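Newbie here. two chains, one complex. Structure please?
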Amino acid sequence: MDYAPAEHRPAGARPGAELLPVKILIAGGFGVGKTTLVHALSEIPPLSTEQDMTSLSVGIDDAEAVPDKRTTTVAMDFGRITVDQNMILYLFGTPGQSRFWFMWDELARGAVGAVVLVDLRRVDDCFAAIDYFENRGVPFVVGVNGFPHADEFDDETVRDALVLKPGCPLVRLDARDPGSSLRALIVLVERSLQHGR
Amino acid sequence: MSVDEHSTPRGANGGRVVPNYAVTRGRTRSDGRELPVEALVTATEHGLAQLSALTPEYRTIVEACTSPQSLVELGNLLGVPVGVARVLVSDLANAEHLAVHLPLVGPDGRPRRELLERLLDGLRAR
C-alpha cells in the first residue's frame, strides 16, 4: 500500500518530509492504569474521543434473543509523542470491555503493537486482551503495573498465571511514571522488530 | 462540498446542538478510502487561502491543521465521534484543502521495518 498521492501533498512540501504517523495500543482491564500511562507519556493534555461503531449484537438479555444491529459509542483515550521531526506516535487506551473486541480490529491494523497492562490482584481482566493479540498476531508485551502487592510475585509466577508464551516480554512498570512507561514502549518496539521476521 | 456561510447554533454550555448527521448531511461513511484514526492531516496552501469561504466545521479543521493533526485529535477538537471527523476530513481532502498522511505499512499490514527502527531510536533518545 503506497499512499500519499501527489494531489494530496501539502503545497510546497519537500520530498522526504512526509509525515509518519505510528500507533501503539495500551490495553488491559478496567481501571488497570491505561489512561494513567497514556497521560504520563503524552505531550498533549489528556484527550478523549468518541468512536462510533456498529455491531451485530445478540440480545442475550432478551427473551427472544433476536440479533439486531446497534450503534455503540465508546470513549477512547489517546496521547501523542513527537518522536522526531516527521514521526508522531499515538498511544490509544483501548476500551477495557472485551465485548468491544471488534473495535480493536480497526485500531490494531497497522499498529506497532500493544502494551497489555496487568493488575496482579485481578489477572483475569487481562486475558481477553492477551488472547486477542495472540490470535491476531499483533506483537505485545505485558506490563505489570505497580499496584500494592505486585512485588510479592516473581516473574515466573506471573508468567505462569498469565500463561504467557516463552519470549513474550514481561516488564514491571508504574503507569504514573514516564520513565518506566517509556521503557515498556521501547521493549515493545524491540519485540515488534523481532516479531515474525 | 458546501461553502455556504452559516453559524452553528451552540447550546447554553457551548456544546453542539446540531446533530452529527446534520454536520455530515446524513453520511456516516466517508466516500474515500477509510482513513485510520492516526492518519495525519495538514492544511494545504489552497485550503488556507479558501478559509473565509468555508463553513465553520470545515474552517475549524483547516485552521487547526496548520500543524499536523490526527483524525482523533480533530474529532476531539470538534466534539464529534471519529467517524464524523473522517467524513469531514475526506471532504476537505477531496477538495484539496487538506493533505492526508497515511501510516506506512508493509504488505503484511504492519509498520515497515525502517519505521520501527526509527521509532526505537526516537524513544531511546528521550
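Moderator note: The two ends of chain B are 43 Å apart (CA to CA). The beta strands of chain B are 40-43, 69-70, 98-101. Thread marked as resolved.
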